[in-house]
């Protein structure tokens, strides 16, 4: 691992580092991180910061131990200001605030706009600080954790490395809190079900993501060709080792054959709005032939419109692909129901029989 060769870094900071004790911002751990960021900048590296902690930072201004959803949004609105202020003080350089929802990332036009804005900020030596827009987001529109948000942002701006700072040294083969013989995995070349099985819950009561979400984030980023590190952000030595070219935690090796940006976006960022179950995987995605026809539909789940992203599965639950649909669930449902009618003949789709097209297709078997 040669950090010096990585021009563009995304650094994700968890809530426990921002607001230890869940009660307002603190410089206790952030001073070390700020120094690390300055060192990276002096090396000529670009840094994008994904900073959690707005709710934890704002909690001190609200007299409650059991906040409602609305109050958490108010905490986020208040704490976001405190969080930006402490970063401005510690970094002492131009900063930009970018608040995102999952809906922003799922919309292709907004996704490209986000990328263009961040590129312009970096070109002018401004550090973008990204966070989820907790004040306005809903369950349907939110990413839910900043680990995955960081991975999506890293892919959007073609980062070279994603560093996720947490409160453990990295990924262990078993829970180090309950097993004295737990071993830290320093290198992971491929994320498999066994790797996911090693991930436990959140160690800290402050954050929303545990090791599970960090593995999910790593899977997203390495698929885009981005090396990913999980390190202990509470230890000064973690940052010193990185600057010395030493791996202080768990290094997830990037895929040597990364997905194309469009396929990665479809696979790892866009959330499907519904599902189409087809009769046989053999019908899907052969050469220049039509992908899927009305004859292949067994069932349609969910409500979606033409242009939405859907999941294509087989009857046994195998996930084949994510793709933009050319037709609404209403029409596809009608076609599927016609198959069960007495005449046993489906009504043809208007214009042509293609449910999806190659231009908007991500085959999940290659994810």
UniProtKB/TrEMBL annotation:
Principal location listed in the UniProt entry: cytoplasm
GO molecular function terms noted in the UniProt entry: ATP binding; glutamate 5-kinase activity; RNA binding
GO cellular component: cytosol
UniProt-listed InterPro entries: AceGlu_kinase-like_sf, Asp/Glu/Uridylate_kinase, G5K_ProB, Glu/AcGlu_kinase, Glu_5kinase, Glu_5kinase/COase_Synthase, PUA, PUA-like_sf
Compartments (UniProt record): Cytoplasm
Binding site for substrate: 52, 134, 146
Pathway: Amino-acid biosynthesis; L-proline biosynthesis; L-glutamate 5-semialdehyde from L-glutamate: step 1/2
Domain PUA residues, every copy: 274-329
Domain Aspartate/glutamate/uridylate kinase as annotated: residue spans: 7-232
Gene3D superfamilies given in the database record: Acetylglutamate kinase-like (3.40.1160.10), PUA domain (2.30.130.10)
Family to which this protein belongs: Belongs to the glutamate 5-kinase family.
Protein name: Glutamate 5-kinase
Organism this protein belongs to: Thalassotalea piscium
């Amino acid at each position: 691992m040669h950090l010096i060769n990585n021009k563009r870094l995304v650094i994700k900071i968890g809530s426990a580092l921002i607001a230890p004790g869940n009660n307002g911002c603190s410089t206790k751990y952030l001073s070390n991180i700020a120094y690390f960021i300055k060192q990276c900048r002096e090396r000529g590296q670009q840094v994008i910061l994904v900073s959690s902690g707005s709710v934890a930072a704002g909690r001190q201004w609200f007299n409650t131990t059991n906040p409602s959803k609305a109050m958490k949004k108010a905490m986020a609105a208040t704490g976001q200001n405190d969080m930006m202020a402490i970063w401005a003080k510690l970094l002492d350089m131009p900063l930009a605030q970018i608040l995102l929802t999952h809906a922003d990332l799922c919309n292709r036009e907004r996704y490209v706009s986000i990328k263009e804005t961040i590129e312009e900020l970096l070109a002018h030596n401004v550090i973008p600080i990204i966070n989820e827009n907790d004040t306005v987001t809903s369950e349907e529109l939110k990413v839910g954790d900043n680990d995955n948000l960081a991975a999506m942002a890293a892919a959007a701006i073609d980062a070279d490395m994603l560093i996720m700072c947490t409160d453990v040294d990295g990924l262990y083969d078993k829970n180090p809190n309950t097993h004295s013989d737990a071993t830290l995995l320093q290198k992971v070349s491929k994320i498999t079900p066994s790797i996911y099985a090693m991930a436990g819950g959140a160690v800290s009561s402050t954050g929303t993501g545990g090791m599970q979400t960090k593995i999910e984030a790593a899977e997203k980023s390495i698929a885009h060709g981005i090396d990913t590190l999980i390190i202990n952000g509470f230890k000064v030595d973690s940052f010193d080792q990185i600057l010395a070219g030493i791996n202080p935690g768990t290094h997830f090796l990037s895929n040597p054959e990364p997905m194309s940006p469009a396929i990665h976006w479809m696979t790892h960022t866009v959330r499907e709005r519904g599902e189409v179950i087809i009769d046989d995987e053999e019908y899907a995605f052969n050469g220049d032939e039509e992908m899927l026809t009305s004859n292949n539909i067994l069932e349609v789940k969910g409500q979606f419109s033409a242009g939405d992203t859907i999941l294509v599965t087989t009857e046994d639950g195998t996930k084949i692909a994510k793709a933009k649909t050319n037709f609404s669930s209403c029409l596809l449902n009608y076609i599927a129901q016609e198959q069960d009618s007495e005449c046993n003949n489906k009504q043809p789709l208007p214009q042509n029989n293609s449910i999806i097209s190659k231009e908007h297709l991500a085959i999940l078997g290659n994810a």
